[in-house]
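Recap quiz, item 2
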Amino acid sequence: MVICLRHALPALFIAALISSSLIAQGRPTPNPQLAAKGLNTRVESLLKKMTLEEKIGQMVQFSAGFATGPGAAEKNTHFDDLVAKGEVGSFLNVVGAEATNHYQHIAMEKTRLHIPLIFGLDVIHGDHTVFPVPLAVAASFDPPAAEIVAHTGGVEARADGVPWVFSPMVDIARDPRWGRIIESNGEDPYLGSVMARAWVRGYQQGDLSKPNSVAVSVKHFAAYGAAIAGRDYNATDMSEITLRQVYLEPYRAAVEEGAATMMSSFNSINGVPATANPFTLTQILRKEWGFDGFVVSDWGAVKELINHSIGDGPTVARKALMAGLDMDMEGNLYGTVIAQQVRSGKIPESVIDEAVRRILRVKFALGLFEHPYVEPGPAYEPTAEKRALARKVADETLVLLKNDPVEGVGALLPMTGKAKKVALMGPMADNQRDIIGSWSQGDPKNAVTLRKALSERLGDGLLYAEGCGLLSGQDAVTLNKVNFGGSVASAVGGNEVPDDDQTIAAAVETAKQADVAILALGESANWMEGEASSRVHLGFTGSQEKLLEAVVATGKPVILVVMAGRPLELKWAAEHVPAILEAWSPGMEGGHAIADVLFGDVNPSGKLPSSLPRAVGQEPLYYAQMPTGRPATGVDLSHIPTDSPSKFVSRYVDEENSALFPFGWGLSYTRFSYSKPTVSRESVPLKEVLASGHSPVVKVGVDVKNTGSVAGTEVVQMYIRNTDASVEQPVRELKGFARVQLAPGESKHVEFPLGFDELNFYNVEVKRTVEPTTYKIWVGGSSLATEETSLQIVE
Ligand code: NOJ
């Protein structure tokens, strides 16, 4: 059997394909979803009737429900009046038929022009049905899984009156100190772009006019994930080549896929705030990529431009608008300081018209003028069918980091029938709130914990002791100082330091009664993951490490299950615990999915979308590093540890350069072998590559065999290195992957296309190009792949 894959070109979307091939030739084309027949005529005819105030009203958004940012309470709460006067075009955080219909009736019935509101919401990993967090979904290396998550969440949001989701987040995240890595697709631009497309497809279904499609807001434009030192909201600073080649790629992919809206980011980029950045918002996004949806600011980001020191209120609003920022989220500046500046001639009305055009286009495309309301439905209960989907996706996201044989026992996983008594411990074992992860709209009560799932399988054979909490009293004190107004302390039981010694001792006694101990440790979704949750310590919080060490000291075989929204430091665990499963924040069916893998009903197939560090001091740590003049290894794979012959090489004196577990890593209960990869042509003339557009010029083929005794799925990964470019290129870059299912003994031939799309890079003139060179090519099961071939591009 032959499998040939190129994720960047989903066969389903021919229209997108045609438009993207034009973009590659430098000719942006309109998004077919926003260019439906007659749509522009309707927009223009409505625009002509609008007063300046009505136009500006379309550009104003408020949070009229719960707050997802600071300062909401200070804002205007006379929302009924604002809507009736046409002074608001959108709300966020208003959810459900009753609330959305309430405001929509005012907009449709009391305003002069009856323009519907558009409601937006952070639907990040499902809505009522809570799937694993996006970082986990990326670990599946399975774009259809992302489509399922997006589609399910979108359909549920639409049924709640919300036709616009603030998702997907496509920021490249290479520093797990940044709490928002949980919402990302991890460190890699290729994986990030493939997944970005899948999320957009799942939400928008290639057709915004479908009654259950939702418009996406791709965020946070741009480069928010590169916040210096991983501190949220911090500045970013990088070369234009890195910006384009690494950080902008997933946004570009999302735009090619038809993304209807974008959200600007809080950070500045090379000194210019992203929310008032003409280079990113107009030059790149509109002129180069042909984006014709609208851009909404992030929460309060227009007003925060004052803190960026680029002017007073009127000035920053003008700068944002002129740069290409169409809608002011929860900022109230557009509504108050723009009209006057248009009247005085400081802002041309044509700029307002263009912003309003873009917003109306999306409202028309979504069919909101025809169907502004939503039918009230019964309170949402997750169906068995949706639970099954959440479980299936979660099954694919779990990454088996380690499964070393234990003397006299063999490999601990899978657990099939070996252990009669199992001790389950740790603060994530029976924790419904944190298992679903941050940014969850769903009800934690619907979450299945690992304790529940294991007790379904083991009954009395399961022993349980929590051992310790996620946070100790000291963490609570620290977090409160950071500004949680006492809420953390009350959530974890006050500022008293709990007596972990006693609870740990009780857990140790529980472990001693069992054949095997499972420790479920992790991170608080509420306090430590997501927005405003950067950390400088990446170890387990509270007394968790102490608990782990105490249980390991009993000599019982230990399986560690890590539930966290970011790579944590697992160095001690990796040295002392034989089996480790990275489970991320696995969502409402997380307990079942983890049990599926622990018992071998599901053979793990997830791979790391983000390198796991040995120490936080290595961050930002990622596999696609640039070469140095003094590589530590003496070979080009500077992420593979070997002894260095000299002190004067690029390395740390107190730790290895390499990741503890590298990008793409993940074990299976079976083994896979790879043939040496081959190329369909060993050399290709440069002219042919440059003229090929999106068409591949070469195929890289490899045979993958399941050499073990159980069926399994391998994520086959292809990496390339441009060895002789005019601008230095990373030591490896992922340029293809495929999930391949193999029965025991079965072999499949996998082919990856290579063409301009995969081979290009930005030269010193910051132009995408390909030059004569040799590409090294590796295919294997992680970024450490060793099976190698090469391709020459000749004059
Ligand atoms: C701020 C966050 O950065 C963004 O991701 C989110 O969509 C908005 N708040 C709205 O909640």
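The chain is about 30% helix and 15% strand.
Residues 68-69, 92, 122, 166, 219, 298-299, 531 surround 1-deoxynojirimycin (CB under 6 Å).
End of item.
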